[in-house]
Design goal:
InterPro entries: Pyrophosphatase, Pyrophosphatase_sf. This protein is mostly beta strands. It is about 10% helix and about 25% strand. The chain contains three helices and 19 strands. The strands form six sheets. The chain has a five-stranded mixed barrel with strand order 6-12-14-16-15. It has a four-stranded antiparallel sheet with strand order 1-2-3-4, with no helix packed on it. It has a two-stranded antiparallel ribbon with strand order 7-8.
C-alpha cells in the first residue's frame, strides 16, 4: 500500500493504479482518523482566515509535464491525469521552459461557474476549482501535497473562450514569504517570473495544435480578491465526508477506498524530453490578447 503524508501532516494520499495511465487515482484521507475526504470540498479554503492564509492542493510539481488535476465527476474527487485525444496528457516543454514553472494546483472549495458570465472578463467560468501557481524558490511539492499559502495576485487567462483565473501564491513556510505581500513584491524579489508566467500560459497549448491564449486586462496582473457566490453545481460530484447538511454528505464509516498501490509509472511520450519553439510574433499578429476594462472579480466559494 502506497500512502504518503502531505507536507502539513493533516492529510495523507492513497495512490491507486499505474502513474501516467487513465486509471491512476490519488485519493485523500484525513491523517488523524483515516476518513476519506474530497480535496475539492472537504479541505477548507482558509487555513487562517484572519491572516488571509489559504490551503492549496498541489496537482503538478514544478518542472514536470504530466497534467494532473482534481477530478470533477469521480466520487470524492481524486486527482487524475487529464487526457488529450483519449490519452494521458503531458504538457510540452516550450523553449525556454521545462514543464510547469511553479508548483501548480487548485484552491479547495472554489469553483469557476460555467453558467456565470464573469463581469471582469465577459466570459463564463471553466467549471474547475480556482487554479494557483505556487512560486516558492526552494520547494518541489509532490502531487497531492497540501500547502498553506499566501495569495499575492491574479492573472486573468482567457482559455478556449472561458474565464480561467490564475492566482499567484507562495508557501508561507518559504523564507521569501515574509517579503512578499502583493504582486508588486513578486516583480521586485523575483524579477522576470511574472513575465515568464504570462508567456507560458499564452503558448503552452500551441505545440499540441492549440491557439495561443488571451488575457483579461491586456495581460496585467491584479491584486487579490475573492467574492462569495452560489450556483448550480451541474455534473460535478459533491460527495464529501465532513460537510454536514450538504447534498453530497456521505457517512465516512461506509466509504471504502480501493487498496493503495505502488506501481512503476507507464512510459512517457518521447517528445516530453524535446524543446518546442513557439513563434510569439505570429501570435502577436493574430491579436490574441483580450483587454477588458472592469476589475470586479467574482469567484464562487462553496
Amino acid at each position: 500500500m502506497d500512502i504518503e503524508t502531505t507536507s502539513d501532516e493533516e492529510y495523507t494520499v492513497r495512490k491507486v493504479g499505474r502513474p501516467f495511465t487513465k486509471d491512476y487515482r490519488v485519493y485523500f484521507e484525513r491523517r488523524k482518523d483515516g476518513i476519506p475526504i474530497s480535496p475539492f470540498h472537504d479541505i477548507p479554503l482558509y487555513h487562517d482566515k484572519d491572516k488571509g492564509i489559504l490551503n492549496m492542493v498541489v496537482e503538478v510539481p514544478r518542472w514536470s509535464n504530466a497534467k494532473f488535476e482534481i477530478s470533477r465527476d469521480i466520487s470524492l474527487n481524486p486527482i487524475v491525469q487529464d487526457t488529450l485525444s483519449d490519452e494521458p496528457r503531458f504538457v510540452k516543454s516550450c523553449f525556454p521552459y521545462k514543464g510547469y514553472l511553479w508548483n501548480y494546483g487548485a484552491l479547495p472549495q472554489t469553483w469557476e461557474d460555467p453558467t456565470h458570465t464573469d463581469p471582469a472578463t465577459h466570459k463564463k467560468g471553466d467549471n474547475d476549482p480556482l487554479d494557483a501557481c505556487e512560486i516558492s524558490r526552494h520547494s518541489l511539492i509532490p502531487t497531492g501535497g497540501v500547502r498553506r499559502v499566501k495569495p499575492l495576485g491574479i492573472l486573468g487567462l482567457i482559455d478556449t473562450d472561458e474565464t480561467d483565473w490564475k492566482v499567484v501564491v507562495i508557501d508561507v513556510d518559504d523564507p521569501l514569504a515574509e517579503k512578499l505581500d502583493d504582486i508588486e513584491d513578486v516583480e521586485r524579489e523575483l524579477p522576470g517570473l511574472l513575465d515568464a508566467t504570462r508567456d507560458w500560459f499564452r503558448i503552452y497549448k500551441v505545440p499540441d495544435g492549440g491557439r495561443g491564449n488571451g488575457f483579461a486586462f491586456g495581460g496585467a496582473y491584479r491584486d487579490r480578491k475573492l467574492v462569495k457566490g452560489e450556483a448550480d453545481s451541474g455534473k460535478i460530484s459533491l460527495e464529501n465526508t465532513t460537510l454536514k447538511g450538504t447534498p453530497g454528505k456521505l457517512d465516512p464509516e461506509e466509504v471504502k477506498l480501493p487498496p493503495g498501490e505502488d506501481l512503476s509509472p507507464a512510459p512517457t511520450p518521447r517528445d516530453i524530453e524535446e524543446w518546442f519553439f513557439v513563434d510569439r510574433e505570429k501570435l502577436d499578429r493574430e491579436g490574441l490578447s483580450l483587454d477588458v476594462e472592469r476589475l470586479d472579480i467574482v469567484l464562487d466559494i462553496k
